[in-house]
Amino acid sequence: MIHIYSLGRAARYFPERMALVSNARRSTFRELDARVRRVAGALTRHGFKAGDRLALLLPNEADYIELVYACAWLGVVAVPLNTRLSAVEIDRVLTDANPRGLIRHSSLPVPTVQVSWQMVLDQDPLDIQSDSIPDPIYDPHAILALIYTSGTTGRPKGVEMRHSNILVNVYHTNFWFPLEEGAVHLHAAPIFHIADFPFMFAAPAAGACQVTIPKFNPQSFCERVERERVTHTVLVPTMINMLTQLPDLKNYDLTSLKHLGYGGSPMVPELVHRTRQVLPNVKLVQVYGLSEAGFLTGLLDHEHTEDKLTSCGRPCLGIDVRVVDPTGKEVETGQTGELVARGANIMHSYWNKPEETKLAFRNGFFRTGDIGYQDANGYFYIRDRLKDMIVTGGENVYSGEVEAVIYTHPAVREVAVFGIPDPKWGEIVKAVVVLKPGKTLTAEELIAYCRRSLANFKVPRSIEFSDTELPKSGSGKILKKVLREHFWTHQERAVS
Asked: Nearest 5°: phi and psi at 287?
């Protein structure tokens, strides 16, 4: 269904407009639609049909976007894989998703899980021919993609994003970042993230061009903005921090950039002020959301006032966000509780996880796991996390997953992993470790051990060894709050 309202619409109404710029490739909407038809034909010749799953382990390039469009055309479920994961972590996702095929790039980790059909796209391109294929599917309830998020136990969870979910996300995207014919959106954040994924469909729906860079760095970002006259982009605060500190930033013409969205974590007020200084004509929008929902709330440019810089904003039309107590009852204004939400943008379920799906919903609302409050004007503020999660550079890290790896080291008796504030990454992963009697272990050795099984962003950046056992509650649970406290003493929030 989503093809009809995105690329299909663009090919009908803006056929000669530039649609996609990636490296040396440039395509109009007419050319892109025709190529996607041929890519869909190639997948059909390889036996893919509606409901099959195709895993994609690719950088931000034209092939990635074309393959997602082809999946949407056929009703094949795209499984975008996080390119920052280790081979072991990718194996877990592939085992859970059980895709019919995998298309990957040779520069990225090589999974060991056997998939019935596999292609290394930069070495063995798809055989694109002028096949005859059926019209695009029109089923709002068909699963468009499985967006994977780490589970609290380290088990991956596939979020079932249906065609109808993404269409609603397209509407929300255009609420926060108004796109218009001729606009240019830069995919600087990874496409596999829910923060950027909907823009693949929102851009063509409005007649806007998409530009890609394989991987973010401040120089390539500025070069692409200057050359392609980029108007819209979404970054995580870590990227913005790197951008604002680029020594030769003033040497680039970034005047075309009009809308800068940021998410993954709130931006500290000092970075907001610095961004205003170096990009004075850019409209800032903070978006708060989840893999399970897309965007939930946003803080518009004119709302970036001193009293609201720590707010994640208010919901747009079609989203109901509330704050509830542990029983699910809505609390009074200003009181702290868990943020819950409902709307047509929110997932129906996790892939093959009925019990976890059931736990994620209560009274018709999705439980975000974030703790916060709403002020008298309806603005939401996040103060802590119900889930034991760290957000570092816009990436989610569940402490239980890191702890599970550390506990497999033969020298470790007990460990607690949590986030501590960091000016560059927002938070970094810290581990406090107690060794077994008579055992020795250095921080460098433990970090090297973790790298074998964890993505780089999940590996602890700070390791502390304790000579005494970790503080525990009466039930024997490690009191991470006690361990975290002194790191967050002078912070406004218990998350960064």
From this structure: -120, 135
The answer regarding whether domain 2-374 maps to CATH 3.40.50.12780 reads yes
Residues of the chain within CATH 3.40.50.12780 domain(s) are 2-374
Torsion on CA atoms 165, 168, 173, 176, rounded to nearest 10 = -130
| CA atoms of 195 and 189, how far apart (whole Å) | 8
Q: What is the pLDDT of residues 134-153, one digit of tens each?
A: 899 999 999 999 999 865 44
End-to-end CA distance of the chain: 38
Report, in angstroms and rounded to the nearest whole number, the Rg of the chain calculated over CA atoms.
Answer: 23
Distance between CA 212 and CA 220 in Å, rounded?
A: 10
Amino acid at site 144: L
Strand residue runs (E) in 328-441: 337-343, 361-362, 365-374, 380-385, 389-392, 395-398, 412-422, 426-435
Structure tokens at 380: 């939401």
* Nearest 10 degrees: Cα torsion 314, 363, 195, 115: 180
Residue 436 has what DSSP assignment?
Answer: P
Torsion over CA: 381, 376, 492, 217 (sign): positive
Helix 62-74 vs helix 199-206: crossing angle, to nearest 10: 80
pLDDT digits (tens, 9 = 90+) for 158-209: 999 999 999 999 999 999 999 999 999 999 999 998 889 999 999 999 999 9
**Cα distance between residue 76 and residue 145, in whole Å:** 8
Look up residue 217 and give its amino acid.
N
Residue corresponding to tokens 């010749």 = 45
Minimal CA–CA distance to 133: which of 49, 69, 10? 49
3-state percent helix, strand, coil for the chain, nearest multiple of 5: 30, 30, 40
Please state the length of the chain: 496
* Collapsed DSSP state (helix, strand, coil) of residue 437: coil
Which CATH number, 2.30.110.10, 3.40.50.1110, 3.40.50.300, 3.30.300.30, labels domain 389-485?
A: 3.30.300.30
> In this structure, what token pair is assigned to residue 496?
């960064």
251, two tokens: 């040497």
Numbered ranges of CATH 3.30.300.30 in the chain = 389-485
Which H or E run contains 290? Answer: strand 283-290
pTM, rounded to two decimals: 0.85
Per-residue pLDDT tens over the stretch 248-284: 999 999 999 999 999 866 677 878 988 999 999 999 9
Instruction: Give the span between the Cα atoms of 66 and 234, in whole angstroms.
Output: 20
